[in-house]
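FAQ: What does a multi-protein file look like?

Like this. Sequence, then tokens, then the next protein.
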Amino acid sequence: MSDNEEGEGEDQVEKLPEIDYEATDEEGFFVVEKQIWTEYQKWLKTPEDEREQGELEEWQESFAEKSRFDPNRIKKVVTIGLYAGERDDKLQRHGRGHSIYKNGDAYMGVYNENQKEGLGVYTFYSLAPDAKSQTIYEKWTQFQKESETDPDPHEFTKSIQKTLGKTREVIVAAIAQNGPHPYYRGDYEANQKCGSGDMKYADGGFYSGKWSNDQRNGFGYYYYPNGDVYTGLWKDNLKNGEGRYEFADQKVQSMHIDGVWNAGNFEKGQWKLTESIEYIGKFENNLPKDFNGKFTFSKNDVQQNGEFSSEGRWIPKFSAGKMEDDLGFVVTNGEATTNAQDLIQEAIDLGETQVLPTDTITQATKVSD
């Protein structure tokens, strides 16, 4: 064979293109790592009994052979996820960045030496959205498509009021802005929620307020999925200090609990059942427990002191007469002429309230973690 013939033969050998590990996409992610992540997600979503490679290590080896990607690069992506953003001279995440974690969760915000620090948004894509949030988001997406101008969340809320039920508008706005998944948007310090921030929970609940040590601490609003709202102080994720809990039930719009909470339990204060019925006193285990507790029935011009029995039955201590003036009630001695619990039952029969005195406090103490 001549030299020319040898050269021609070499030219016919197929040369595979070099892999550019430094190329990035429009979001700033390395293209190769994004490809690895995409294929890894496909493998994860394939039912186990349908996977050609049953174990992760087997998939990594197979994909490395097929793609010719560096096996260490593949292992890195499936172990820690993706990152696009600024780094310091030690290659730590530092400054603004976008992370997609191994479990699928995502963070967009500020880093300081690999820790979340400053303002950021963490979305829990690993947690499925509750059914109502998903429905609201789908309707919001459709509303956006049909809007001739910039869609207004307030107008959207009014348009789907029947679907929302008692869901508060603040939750609708949160879903419109951030999607249906649970998320935290706010301040971080050393990888923990700290400062001011909003949190949408997996059950559809929503908190807006102060944080420290990764927990609700300080003043904040908690909007329950059923429309109830707590406004007040928190300590270590529990209601603690002065606070007011309002019930959303349309038949008892005036119902609320207002007073002092301790470690999530209501201790003392006002319990408003209707516009004309309220109880003031101490509580124990979230039930009224005060020998000097007082029911007031402004519609009947009656007040009554007493306490609740362990069975939840009101036991009057003494009764009061008619109101004379702005100074209050004229108290009379003797047996009670009217039992407060009977007047509450009367309010229930009239549709003014739907609960007996011991049915609501426990509901007010529940909250998402």
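And here is the next protein:
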Amino acid sequence: MFHKCKNKLFCANAFIFIICFCCVTAFANAKPLNPLRKLKEVTLKNGMHLLMLPRHSAPIIAGGWVVNVGSANEHKGITGMSHMFEHVMFKGSETIGTKDYNKEKGINAEVASLRKQRQLVGDGITQERLSSAIKKKQEELDKLYKKSEYFNIYAQHGGDRINAYTTRDHTAYFLTLPANKLELFMWMESDRLINPVFREFYTERDAVLAERKERMNKSPFIHASYQFEDKYWAGTPFSWPVIGTRNDIGGYTLAAARRYLQHYTPKNITLILVGDFDVDQAVTLANKYFSSFKRASDNSDNTGSVDQSDFRVKPVVGSYDIVAPASVTLRYPTDKIGGESYVPLQVLSYMLNSPVGELKQQLQLSNLASSAQSYNNVNRYAGYFSVYAEAYNNNDITKIENKIIDILQDYKHNVSQDRLQLAKTNLLYNYYSHLRSNYSILQYLLRYASYDNGMNYLKSYPDMIEAVSVADVKRAAQVFFSDDQSRMIVTKKSNDGGV
């Protein structure tokens, strides 16, 4: 006979755990094959890399390319330029996006001259006259533009999910399209890499400023996070947000963007295809369309070079009184991507976050925190392990902080073999779940292709997870969970008085 559960939250979590346990146990016994073992790698004569994973289950291809340049490769004055390229690289080329490129080029030269004159003159009346002249020339240019033609061409041929993203490490561009449109993809992507035209540059600059402002206004927590990152990563290129600082974005020039294009070199780019295609045909098409892609890198402004020794951080405390739930984040510096403790810390994070993990059991079920989550964040140059907890019913933040510290310190000496195995199985389940579709596989490859030895690392990731032992988890906790952690503390402020 079943009895009514008195603690509904506990029973719900217990039910979720049972379901998860059954699923991952079934998964563990299935021993799935890793499709990435069939990955083909080719380097073209110009140094551009090509990754190909044929999968003939459906007549679809997920394609994209990744550039090994992100916000960490910038410097003050052009912060956010990698993200700016997300906007301008979709504006077409000398062929796509224009009715008459030669005429457009001539007017752009006139606009550049007028802008330069306006910068040099101090007379307000003359500046106003030049601004009026620039506006008229811009109206002429608008009539020559075939706006959104890049997107429209793909849409007419079945292209979908056209997008891009930027991280501290890289910038990626991607889409899906029918298998019989592979040559269209090769032509379109080579064309915008070889002959890009940054149309409506200053309009897009304003759009990025508006995007940044919207983020800041939407969440006071994001604003506080930007301030904390600046403090935590002081003196490193991680100190500014990926989107850039407001002053730097407002100061972008077309000339600066063209200089930044020098980092979009063949040797710095990996083209990736996943789906229904023939490998030999793909290589032939890549050689046909990308063989003329040659761009020398002139690193005279030091953009792109990163001193990895810069990423040593000292413990900091950031306290913010904002209109947001009270919370605390503890952060510990760790390995960069590929470090020997990366996978053990991934497993440890899964142990903390599971339904039977300490964050759920000791913080949430005890009504100390309304939510809690750990993160193992790694990049090319540095990494950190963090735990975030949001106070329940205005509970004392210090009490929550001390409980988190006790939990992490306990991992130095006590690690359950059963829970370790469950976390490892969950990690493997998550890994293989992301290898079910062309698009999700592409996203994995876009990320890891930008790292040294990234493909071998991604292929061997399941083996590394399975090899993690109790001793490995304890060792990682002992090495990284020091007493000198950084803290971001948010105290709740009423709406009266603003932010």
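Q: Is there any per-entry metadata?
A: Some entries carry free-text notes. For the entry above: DSSP finds 18 helices and eleven strands in the chain.
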